[in-house]
Amino acid sequence: MSSPSEHEIEFKLSFLLPKYWGIWLGYGLLRLIGFLPYATKIHFGEALGKFLYLIAGSRKQTAKQNIEIAFPEKNLKEINSLVFEHFKSLGVGLIEITITAWGKHRHSDTNNEMNYFTYYGVENIKLNKDHGTLLLVPHFASMEMSGLMLSFITDYMPIYRKHDNPLLEYLLTKSRTILPTPPKKNTVTPLPNTDTKTMLKALRNHQVLWIAPDQKYNGQGSINVPFFNKPAPTNPGINKLAKLGKAKVIPCFTKRKGLHYEMHILPPLENFPSGDDYEDTLRLHKLYEEEIRQNPAQYLWVHNRWSL
């Protein structure tokens, strides 16, 4: 694992300027919520999600349109119910940031959130030591907890898009970074998606990278591939990254079940990449679809996936 200092960002005095005070206020509120008992935080997140549903406006409309595309067989009542459950899940996902940033795992190796975690298929990572690993983690509302769960079983580097706001970039990167100090044994070092050189170096050194390539992408190299039977602009970069890094691609899905979380780590995809970006991406989309159908409320429907 590369040194955490390579990708750290530093606190700047400019973060104290008035234009950032709103962010600091929100950060302070999250920090206060972080002191609540674990179960209370989850229930608070559901209540927050209900409130967000009431004020969401365009985001609620986007979620509704996306769900209509993905599930044309659902009637209006079923769609509205799913949108409501989705916002509850989003609220919990926001509060989960307080767990990853300030949870008991930061202080105790035994009395921590792992008591709420169940894993299936951990051996698929453990047995892949002769190759680099690209963990394929689609955008579900429980992504923050997925990251925490993985930190208990492996070192890894989550690939992410840098936030346009420098203070949010600083706070989010800091909350997701875990250093190899007691009680934590593993390292989590966020890696910007522009740093291809470090990605390839890590993969060729048989390290683990987290990647979430399932959102809309209209940049250079974008291809339109059906997602729930409707063409979606997609970045096929994971195919090239796997090939150049000589890495195995391992899908990883997390379900939130009340206070508990289940992580399913699938075996490495065979014959991936095949050399056909369209077919490889379509294969990934089918994997996402299968998981989403089992867990529809927790997928990130507020993202404009189909250029609506």
Q: Give the terminus-to-terminus CA distance.
A: 40 Å
Please give the order of strands in the largest beta sheet: 1-9-8-2-5-3-4
If you compute it from the alpha carbons, what radius of gyration comes out, rounded to the nearest whole angstrom? 19 Å
Helix percentage: 40-55%
Runs with pLDDT <50, length 5+?
1-7
Number of helices: 10
Which descriptor suits the 3D outline? globular
Q: What series of H and E elements makes up the topology?
A: HHHHEHEHEHEHEEEHEEH
- What is the beta-strand fraction? 5-15%
Task: Give average pLDDT, whole number.
Answer: 92
Largest sheet: 7 strands, mixed
Oligomer: single chain
Count of individual beta strands? 9
Structural class: alpha/beta
Number of domains: 1
